[in-house]
Structures are given as structure tokens and as C-alpha cells.
Write a structure and sequence with these properties.
The chain is built from 21 helices and 29 strands. With 708 residues, it is of the alpha+beta class. The strands form seven sheets. The chain has a six-stranded antiparallel beta sheet with strand order 18-19-27-26-21-20, with no helix packed on it. A four-stranded antiparallel beta sheet has the order 2-1-4-7, with no helix packed on it. A four-stranded antiparallel beta sheet has the order 3-8-5-6, with no helix packed on it.
């Protein structure tokens, strides 16, 4: 005979009241503890009945057909094995009848032929899991005690215990606590058991948070592995943590859900717009360091597929969220097939730096120097000098940039003395012959963003050339270009009438050519350019430089972050030990692992700038100095005179000097409160330009600009 499991000692001695309850409900019997009656149709079609007595733990084979009902006649649990009514022939099942009067079926007779195969006397007090649970619940036992009894007496697994306790009406948190106590397991296993028992994700999440003190990322991961979908997991995070869209986004990403799934969940559970989605993901998923390219692409795909955003709308959202120009370009090119012209136009209108767009054209669209310069020059109305700097910053090879610059250069005039201007159309061929005189001559070039690598070849032996000035043309017709003045010093020994063809070169790249012929030297005093010094004598000349002033510029970088309230911050440059955040307390991290911030409104000091006469020569001729912010002139001053070894200093008041800075989270870095382009900033920096109209004949002409 088959015997059931005996209850462990802890169960028998749990409490006096519990033991008394067991004794009252299930009195001890020596024999025939179980009595079962069943009725059936006999061979004549009449109803007959049979009563069977069984001892504790005894199992009896019956194998009687055409069963009508089966009834327990004693207050002792029995189990009967019968034919299961269902679509599968001859399938069997066990039915437990706990108390006297319990019968199967409860209120009628079997509607179809049923065979009674076996009867099993339940053994000690609890012959079934249901009986155990019912008795312990009636006695007021804890859910942990009930779970321990199910394991000890019936060898139930965690999944089986969870299922039985749910059917008994216990909530998810009670069951999770019991499973953790009895099985000493982890949150992932408990989440799986609760899921298999049929608990909703929202109740599962609350249970995991309370029982295991788990954070949102852990709970999301456990729920996903337990088989819940992203919408169910999101609802669980809302129920357990009151999660915001930003918090849910990062926890769902941490748990392994795809960007597309997260987008759909934010729409379903938060009614999130495309803007809410992209801002949540850009910081919460990517952080201050920015998104990897594949993550950004999946975000942009979600903007298109889940939020029906056009390429132009996606660009605006990505820009506002602080994505880098390169990330935007890569994503829009791959997802929307956006062309270089369209993208560069949006970026120029959106305020992206010239160098950023140039980088996109090179890395994303594989555009060559000439095509990139032509596109950007037209969009930004940029000078060749500015384009050169942008192309260099974008990573184009110096040799390619030099060749492009050489193709842009044109000789405009070669004139004795310091006369300069934009006379006539550019001359690219030697069809016009320029006169040169022994001594000093000046070549005026348009479209030449040349610095120290330019030279002129094809001139008489012993000729010296040097750049003395450069800048942006002030004639609107030529606003796209810069000018360059090159000084040509011919040896005095060159004979009148000597002629030839010279070539302007930039590094190893050939630019325009021009014809030249040597004329007679000018009469003494006949020109503005004095003769060169001859060793021990000569005329002393002044030297002007930009003042060496200390300014703390307000430069805003590109990295960004959010605080716990969802406020946006952009890192300053420099980020650490910034003068602008002196005295601002550090932020912190709250209990939900979110950054908190401390802000302060400050006034950025005015820009101090000016000019210094470093020579021993007084200057009595008026000249002009200018302050530039990138490619924009923001201040100009005329200096009527400047004594030797003296300075002229000025201040520039920004259009907006008050701003808000912050420290966010741990680390002590300094942030601008808001988007990188919100309000005034000093990007890309300031430059002082001295003697911009070349009014002063200086001993050095190549030191007339300085970056602050």
C-alpha cells in the first residue's frame, strides 16, 4: 500500500491551538479511517452502489466502469483516480475529497462514462495540499508556515508553491516573501515563479521591490526574464516606483528591451510625444558621454516608425536633445537617406559650427575638400581663411586643403609701396605683367587664406617674400573671401627690364601665375615704403600688439545631462575648476540613483581688450583695432595716438551677461543651465585685431592678431 508523507515535527508542535485543531477536525482512528461510497450502472442498466473501507495510507484498485458519483463518507481525506472528461481518450486524473459528504461531481452525476481506477486513503491529517492550506489558514498560520508545510509534507517546488498560494488568495508580496524565506532564493527566481502562477507584472514588481529592496533596473530585468512584455514591465515600474518616463526609459534599456520596444511603451503608458521620448532616451540611456552610433540610429528609427516624424522634425528633436552634429548626420543619412546639401542647410540654420558640419560632410558623406568647401562657403558666407580652419578641424588632409586653397587664390595687384585694394577682376594667368621695383613691393591677393606656408617662386635670385597682413574684405561683393598682402623685396642689384613669370605656391600646391618686369628704382622719398635698413642705420618703426589681458570666457561645450527634475544642463569648457562655478555647492545622487543639482545666477565679467605699443616710437597716426567673436566683429575702436611703451584698454559688455550655472550630481564639474545655444555664450571665442586698415608702418606686421 502507498503511504503519504508524514508531517514534520515543526508542524505538529507549531502551537497548541493548531494541534488541537488538527485533533478536532481529524480524529485519530485505528483502522478503516476512510470510507468511500460510489454508485454505478450495472450490466442490466440499473443503478447499484458500493461502500469501501480503507486503512490509513491504503490504496485499493477498483477498475469499475459507468460510475455515477463518488462520495467520501468519513472526515478523513481520500483521493480517487478516475477517467478525466475531455478530448483525450482514456486520460486519467486524481480528485481529492477532504471531508464527509464531499462528492464528485459535486451536484449531479457524471455526464459521460467514467471509470474508477483507484481509491487512496489520505494518510495523516492532510491528505492533499488543498487540505493542508485550508487547515493552516483556518488556524491563522502565516503564509511562510503554509509554504514550509507544502514543501516539507508534499515536496512542492517553488513554482508549485506559488501557484497553490495564489489559488488560496494570497497576494504577490506575501507569496514572494514566503518563497524567499523557504527557498532562500533570488529575485529573478521569485519573479519567474510569480509569473508562472499568473500574477500580473504590476503586483510582481511591487513584491520584488518590497521583499528584495530592488531598484528599478533590477526589477525591470527580472520581469523581462520572467516573460512579461515591455508594456507590462513598464506598468510594473510605475506601480512599484512611480517611475517617470525618463526613469522607465533607462531601466527598460538596462534590462535589455530594444529602443523600439521602449518607444512603444512610453507611448502606451505615458502618452509620450516624440520630444519626451528622445529627451528621455538621450540622457537616461546614453548619459553625458553621448549615444553610440547604433543606439542613436535605433532612436531615430523609432522617431520615424513609432512617432511618424519627418526627417526635418527628427533633426530638430535631436538638436534640442543635444545630439552631436556627427551623430545626427549619421542617423539621418542612414534612416531617412537625407542628402548632404539638406543636412548642411539644417545645421547652418540650427547654429552648428562650420567645423562640425565639415566633419559630417567628410565622415558621413565622404565629400572631398573642394565639394565641401563650395557647399559650406555658400551656406555660411565664409571666408577662405575660415573654411581652411574648418576643413583642418574636420580632419581633411593638409595637402588636399592646400591644393583647394591654391585653386582659390588670385593675384589682384602687385604695386610698389603699400597701396592695396580690390582693383579689377581676379587674374589667374600671366597675361598681365606687373611692374616690380628694386626694394619693397606689395602683392595683394584675394581668396588667399595663407599663413606661413605661402611663397612666390620664379622671382630673381635673392628676392625675399613675407606675409605682412591678412583679413576679411570689407566690400560686400567680396565678403566670401579674405585678402592677403605679401611683401616682395627685390635685390637692388636686379637690372631694370628683367622680366619673368612667378607662381604663387601654398606648400607644394601651385596657385595663380603672374608676369613681372623690373622697373627703375623710385626716387628717394617717392613712396610710402621707406628703403630697407642698411646695417647700422635706418628709420625706427613702431610695433603694435594686442594687450595680454586675462579673461574668463564663457565657453559652452557639447556634453549634456539632466537632473532628477528633468532640467537640462550643458557642460562648460573648462569643465573642472571653472571660475564660473566658484562657491556653488556640489550636487548629489538621490535614493533613486538620480542626480540632483545646485544652481546660481552669475554675472559674467566684461571682456577686457586693447592694444599696446611695445616700441620706443610714439604713434601719432590714427589707426583702428577691432574685437571679433568668431567671424563677427563685435567692437571697434579708433586710436588717434599711442605713446611708446603705453597701452589703450577697453571693455566689451556682452548683450547678455547674466546667466545660470550649476553643479549636477557628483564630481564638481561646472554646467550651463539650459541648452548649449540658450542665451549668450562666448563660443567660439574672441580675437583682437590690431591696425586692421594697415595705417601704421610697423617693424613687425605678422603679430597683429591675438586670441583671448
Amino acid at each position: 500500500m502507498k503511504k503519504t508523507h508524514r508531517l514534520p515535527v515543526w508542524m505538529r508542535l507549531a502551537s497548541a491551538s493548531l494541534v488541537l485543531l488538527f485533533a478536532f477536525v481529524f480524529p485519530v482512528q485505528a483502522a478503516n479511517e476512510c470510507q468511500v461510497y460510489y454508485s454505478y450502472k450495472n450490466s442490466s442498466g440499473n443503478i447499484s452502489g458500493q461502500t469501501i473501507n480503507l486503512d490509513d495510507g491504503e490504496t485499493l484498485s477498483v477498475n469499475n466502469n459507468s460510475i455515477q458519483i463518488i462520495q467520501n463518507k468519513e472526515n478523513y481525506p481520500v483521493r480517487v483516480e478516475i477517467t478525466a472528461l475531455g478530448p483525450i481518450p482514456n486520460q486519467k486524473k486524481w480528485v481529492t475529497l477532504n471531508n464527509s459528504g464531499d462528492q464528485d461531481p459535486p451536484f449531479s452525476v457524471y455526464p459521460a462514462p467514467v471509470t474508477l481506477y483507484q481509491i487512496e486513503c489520505g494518510g495523516e491529517a492532510f491528505g492533499s495540499t488543498d487540505a493542508l492550506i485550508s487547515a493552516l489558514q483556518a488556524a491563522g498560520a502565516s503564509v511562510v508556515t503554509i509554504a514550509q508545510g507544502l514543501v516539507s509534507s508534499f515536496g512542492q517546488t517553488g513554482a508549485q508553491v506559488a501557484d497553490l498560494l495564489k489559488d488560496a488568495g494570497f497576494d504577490a508580496t506575501e507569496v514572494a516573501d514566503a518563497l524567499n524565506e523557504v527557498f532562500n532564493t533570488n529575485g529573478q527566481q521569485v519573479a519567474s515563479w510569480l509569473s508562472s502562477a499568473g500574477y500580473w507584472a504590476r503586483y510582481n514588481a511591487v513584491a520584488l521591490e518590497e521583499v528584495f529592496n530592488a531598484n528599478g533596473s533590477q526589477v525591470a530585468s527580472w520581469l523581462r526574464q520572467a516573460g512579461y512584455n515591455v508594456s507590462q514591465v513598464t506598468q510594473g515600474l510605475i506601480e512599484a516606483f512611480g517611475a517617470s518616463a525618463q526613469q522607465a526609459a533607462t531601466w527598460l534599456d538596462d534590462s535589455g528591451f530594444s529602443i523600439d520596444q521602449i518607444a512603444q511603451a512610453l507611448k502606451d503608458k505615458y502618452n509620450a510625444t516624440a520630444e519626451v521620448f528622445i529627451n528621455a532616451l538621450s540622457y537616461e540611456v546614453c548619459g553625458v558621454a553621448g549615444c553610440p552610433s547604433d543606439t542613436s540610429r535605433r532612436m531615430i528609427e523609432a522617431l520615424r516608425d513609432r512617432f511618424n516624424q519627418s526627417a526635418a522634425q527628427a533633426f530638430g528633436l535631436l538638436q534640442d536633445a543635444g545630439f552631436s552634429a556627427l551623430t545626427i548626420a549619421q542617423g539621418l543619412s542612414e534612416v531617412y537617406n537625407t542628402g548632404a546639401q539638406q543636412l548642411a542647410t539644417w545645421m547652418q540654420q540650427g547654429g552648428y559650427a562650420l567645423s562640425e558640419v565639415a566633419t559630417c560632410l567628410r565622415q558621413v558623406y565622404n565629400m572631398n575638400v573642394s565639394a565641401a568647401a563650395d557647399l559650406l562657403g555658400g551656406l555660411y558666407n565664409a571666408t577662405a581663411e575660415t573654411l581652411q580652419e574648418a576643413l583642418e578641424a574636420a580632419g581633411y588632409a593638409a595637402s588636399q586643403i592646400n591644393q583647394w586653397l591654391a585653386n582659390q587664390m588670385s593675384i589682384e595687384s602687385v604695386i610698389g609701396g603699400y597701396t592695396q585694394g580690390y582693383a579689377g577682376q581676379p587674374i589667374r594667368t600671366p597675361r598681365q605683367v606687373f611692374p616690380l621695383r628694386p626694394g619693397r613691393n606689395l602683392v595683394t591677393l584675394r581668396g588667399a587664406a595663407l599663413v606661413g606656408t605661402s611663397s612666390i617662386v620664379g622671382l630673381p635670385r635673392g628676392t625675399r617674400t613675407r606675409i605682412i597682413d591678412r583679413g576679411t574684405g570689407n566690400n560686400g561683393q567680396f565678403a566670401y573671401w579674405t585678402y592677403l598682402h605679401v611683401q616682395i623685396d627685390l635685390p637692388r642689384t636686379v637690372r631694370e627690364g628683367t622680366r619673368g613669370t612667378a607662381t604663387l605656391r601654398l606648400g607644394q600646391s601651385n596657385g595663380p601665375r603672374f608676369g613681372w618686369i623690373v622697373e627703375a628704382a623710385p626716387a628717394p622719398g617717392g613712396g610710402r615704403v621707406p628703403p630697407p635698413s642698411t646695417g647700422g642705420g635706418g628709420t625706427a618703426r613702431p610695433d603694435l600688439i594686442a594687450m595680454n589681458t586675462q579673461n574668463e570666457l564663457y565657453i559652452v561645450g557639447s556634453a549634456n545631462t539632466l537632473d532628477a527634475d528633468g532640467d537640462f544642463f550643458t557642460a562648460l569648457d573648462p569643465f573642472n575648476n571653472s571660475a564660473h562655478c566658484q562657491g556653488v555647492p556640489d550636487g548629489a545622487v538621490n535614493r533613486n540613483n538620480q542626480q540632483t543639482s545646485n544652481t546660481r545666477v552669475i554675472t559674467v565679467p566684461d571682456i577686457r581688450w586693447g592694444v599696446e605699443n611695445t616700441s620706443r616710437v610714439d604713434i601719432t597716426t590714427p589707426f583702428t583695432i577691432e574685437l571679433w567673436r568668431g567671424n563677427q566683429r563685435v567692437d571697434s575702436q579708433q586710436i588717434n595716438s599711442l605713446a611708446s611703451r603705453s597701452q589703450a584698454q577697453f571693455t566689451f559688455r556682452r548683450p547678455q551677461s547674466r546667466t545660470t550655472v550649476a553643479k549636477v550630481g557628483l564630481g564638481g564639474g561646472c554646467y550651463h543651465a539650459g541648452q548649449s545655444r540658450e542665451g549668450w555664450n562666448d563660443n567660439p571665442g574672441f580675437t583682437v585685431r590690431i591696425d586692421t586698415n594697415d595705417d601704421i608702418d610697423e617693424s613687425r606686421e605678422n603679430n597683429n592678431a591675438r586670441n583671448l
